Amino acid sequence: MSHISKNIKYLRKKHYYTQETFAEAIEIKRSLVGAYEEGRADPRINNLLKICDFFKVSLDTFINKDVSTLSDDDLYDDSGTKKEKLKVLSITVDQNDNENIELVPQKASAGYTNGYADPEYIEELPKFKLPMLPGNATYRAFEISGDSMLPLLPGTVVIGEYLEEISRVKNGNTYVLVTAKEGIVYKRVFNYVAEKGKLYLVSDNKSYSAYEVAAEEIMEIWEAKAFISVNFPMPASEEEMSLEKLTNIVAEMKHDIVKIKDHII
């Protein structure tokens, strides 16, 4: 049997769970637990993360080591320093076991901070596919509100790729963050976690002030990869181009075209 099979069985018994009670605890079928332990099936990544999170064991340790040979301290890290606990990300899949993109509408955003780890809550969200996105990542879509990220208007849907580690946040890129205090926000982010334990969030609309969020308040991070909108942004230059200016430009173009036609005739 693989390490995964042996490790599931060992940790289940170590914590005094039957297959039935363990299956109930991580919300899967008992028959799946039996299949995993007997090596007849391998857990899908979302179930594997559930199991790791439940036992507070890192994914790397769970896959690559025989945990029955490790001390309790070594279950976290060989150096004795506890690793950051893996977060369980609830997802949905289609009939071919391919991940969906779940949409979090603006009206559902308040409930998302409570239900983001609840498989039943995620299952109820609208779902869709975008074939142009790479298939080796997990995506979620969020409908943004407010005008802090103009020219993206309220109602724009931002599609983000899930980041497992806050260290992967790149300065100046845009992200959807699910936070304990602010809820869901879409901002341009600067990463100072290593130095100060904080992220700095900046709006593209300069009328909004930048602010900081402590790393421990971050529940999820999604790197923006695409957006969907029924509103086309207005072009802008050093000075914001108004509708009146655009109208004048079009009028001048029409006038020039008439002069060219008259000259040709």
SSE layout and pairings?
Blueprint: H1 3-14, H2 19-26, H3 30-37, H4 45-55, H5 59-64, E1 101-104, H6 109-115, H7 119-123, E2 127-128, E3 139-143, E4 157-162, E5 174-179, E6 183-192, H8 193-196, E7 198-202, E8 211-214, E9 218-228, H9 243-264
Parallel strand pairs: 1-3
Antiparallel strand pairs: 1-2, 3-4, 4-9, 5-6, 5-9, 6-7, 7-8
Q: Can you describe this structure in just a few lines?
A:
This protein has 265 residues and is of the alpha+beta class. The protein is built from nine helices and nine strands.
Low-confidence segments, given as residue ranges, are 77-86
What count of helical segments does DSSP give? 9
Order of helices and strands: HHHHHEHHEEEEEHEEEH
Strand content: 15-25%
CATH architecture of the largest domain: Ribbon
Task: Specify the CATH homologous superfamily of the largest domain.
Answer: Umud Fragment, subunit A
Write down the domain tally: 3
The geometry reads as elongated
Structural class: alpha+beta
Rg measurement, Å: 25 Å
Mean pLDDT: 83
CATH top level class name of the largest domain: Mainly Beta
Largest sheet: 9 strands, mixed
Placed side by side, the strands forming the largest sheet appear as 2-1-3-4-9-5-6-7-8
CATH fold-level label of the largest domain = Umud Fragment, subunit A
Q: State the distance separating the first and last CA atoms.
A: 87 Å
User: Helix fraction?
Assistant: 25-40%
Number of strands: 9
